[in-house]
């Protein structure tokens, strides 16, 4: 797969990583309110309501684009673009959130909210897998799903995605996400809008979050509208 980049832009701790999904980095080949985990803001994650992507002639140059046909992302204000999911405050860097240990795929791009830190962080992740097993199970929600079992369908750039919410918490840490899955162009695409962090009062002195969980979720839902498909 050839990727064109037009702009260069773990779970929080190893113990939390192991507790949540025990995943490890892997490569390829091989709208209802959300019930959040304890300690998370109940308004932090909800189903996004994306709109169809703008006509090709109206789109600015993408910040990320797969080789055609594939997925692309237009510019979004207030984010930095990363080509991996290696962060010190979020979940495992696997290609999709809450994937099983043997799940194989490729992280494509992440839009990380500027200011994200260990107290509150947010990012939109896009991953892809062309493995037959991942395609077959693509639309199945993980055990960490917190809402109705993949009952909603959301249009993202003209492609129907199954939507579910997921989350987990441990000690003072939490993670919640609005997740989207689709089989398109012979591959499973995973889009996760992830909000994660730590209770500010566990720090001495207590820390001030860079933004609220609700604000992070809202900004990520807006960023989802920048996703489209190349033909």
Protein architecture, described:
This protein is mainly beta and 231 residues long. The protein has 3 helices and 11 strands, in the order βαβββββαββββαβ. The chain has helices at residues 14-20, 132-136, 213-224; strands at 3-4, 64-66, 70-73, 79-82, 106-113, 120-129, 152-156, 159-170, 173-184, 187-198, 227-230. The strands form 2 sheets. The protein has a 7-stranded antiparallel β-sheet with strand order 4-5-6-10-9-8-7. It has a 4-stranded antiparallel β-sheet with strand order 1-2-3-11, with no helix packed on it. A hairpin with a 2-residue loop joins strand 7 (152-156) and strand 8 (159-170). It is globular. It starts with a strand and ends with a strand.
Main features:
mainly beta; four-stranded antiparallel β-sheet; single chain; 3 helices
In short:
Helices cover 10% and strands 33% of the residues. It is built from 3 helices and 11 strands.
Q: How would the global form be characterised?
A: globular
Supply the helix-strand structural class. Answer: mainly beta
Determine the mean pLDDT: 80
Regions with little confidence, pLDDT below 50 for 5+ residues: 1-46
**Discrete helix count:** 3
Give me the strand/helix succession. Answer: EHEEEEEHEEEEHE
- Report the radius of gyration as a whole number of Å: 16 Å
Widest beta sheet: strand line-up: 4-5-6-10-9-8-7
Biggest sheet statistics: 7 strands, antiparallel
Query: Proportion of β residues?
Result: 25-35%
Distance between the termini: 15 Å
Helicity level? 10-25%
How many strands in all?
11
């Amino acid at each position: 797969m050839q990727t064109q980049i037009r702009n260069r832009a773990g779970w929080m701790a190893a113990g939390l990583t192991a507790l949540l999904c025990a995943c490890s980095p892997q490569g390829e080949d091989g709208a209802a309110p959300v019930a959040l985990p304890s300690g998370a803001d109940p308004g932090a994650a909800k189903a996004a309501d994306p709109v169809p992507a703008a006509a090709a002639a109206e789109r600015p140059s993408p910040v990320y684009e797969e080789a055609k046909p594939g997925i692309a992302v237009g510019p979004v204000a207030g984010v930095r673009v990363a080509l991996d999911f290696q962060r010190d405050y979020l979940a495992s860097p696997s290609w999709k959130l809450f994937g099983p240990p043997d799940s194989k795929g490729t992280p494509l791009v992440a839009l990380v909210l500027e200011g994200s830190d260990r107290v509150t962080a947010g990012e939109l992740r896009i991953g892809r897998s062309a493995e037959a097993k991942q395609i077959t199970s693509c639309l199945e929600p993980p055990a960490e799903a917190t809402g109705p079992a993949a009952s909603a369908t959301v249009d993202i750039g003209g492609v129907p995605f199954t939507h579910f919410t997921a989350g987990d918490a441990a000690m003072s840490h939490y993670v919640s996400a609005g997740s989207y899955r689709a089989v398109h162009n012979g591959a499973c695409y995973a889009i996760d809008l992830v909000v994660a962090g730590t209770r500010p009062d566990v720090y001495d002195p207590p820390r001030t979050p860079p933004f609220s969980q609700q604000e992070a979720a809202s900004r990520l839902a807006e960023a989802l509208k920048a996703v489209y498909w190349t033909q």
